[in-house]
Amino acid sequence: MTGTSIASIGIRPARPEEARALAVLHTRTRTAYYTAGGLPATELDGAERILPYWERAVAEGRALVAATSEGRVAGFLMTGPPKFDDVDAASVRELQQIGVEPGGWGRGVGGLLHEAFVRRLHADGLTDGVLECWEANARAQAFYARHGWRPDGSRRPGPLGRDYVRLRVTVPL
């Protein structure tokens, strides 16, 4: 992402042929934040293990990419119905993934992807979003807080004894 202007980044639906590249990018992003939180990289799944996850998300239209004007993928967004039993899928969407090439963190790509999530919410006539974030991922926690996400009290066990914390946001139409 070095030298790429945020103005040259566009958000578009992911293409089937990009599923492998998305799995590789997802592997890089999660390795960066999990290892920053103390989890050894050897405990994380590689791109081949998560490729079917991305192939399904792309096929279902749940994946968007942030791409440069040259077509290089700089980040991704995945959304969908919430996987939580206590959340009404008719009124809430889950932000399942935002990932940005680690070398491009802090340059606005994540913000563009978050805006795309809000647009998807509104296109579905919704205002409420939900997500889970590993509590040891301080960078993501701060990013979501800046965008109005707040813990809703729900937690589940995560690696290294650090929970996944559920966050919610309401973005008026």
Automatic annotation (TrEMBL):
<protein>
    <recommendedName>
        <fullName>N-acetyltransferase domain-containing protein</fullName>
    </recommendedName>
</protein>
<dbReference type="InterPro" id="IPR000182">
    <property type="entry name" value="GNAT_dom"/>
</dbReference>
<dbReference type="InterPro" id="IPR016181">
    <property type="entry name" value="Acyl_CoA_acyltransferase"/>
</dbReference>
<dbReference type="InterPro" id="IPR050832">
    <property type="entry name" value="Bact_Acetyltransf"/>
</dbReference>
<keyword id="KW-0012">Acyltransferase</keyword>
<feature type="domain" description="N-acetyltransferase">
    <location>
        <begin position="9"/>
        <end position="172"/>
    </location>
</feature>
<dbReference type="Pfam" id="PF00583">
    <property type="entry name" value="Acetyltransf_1"/>
</dbReference>
<keyword id="KW-0808">Transferase</keyword>
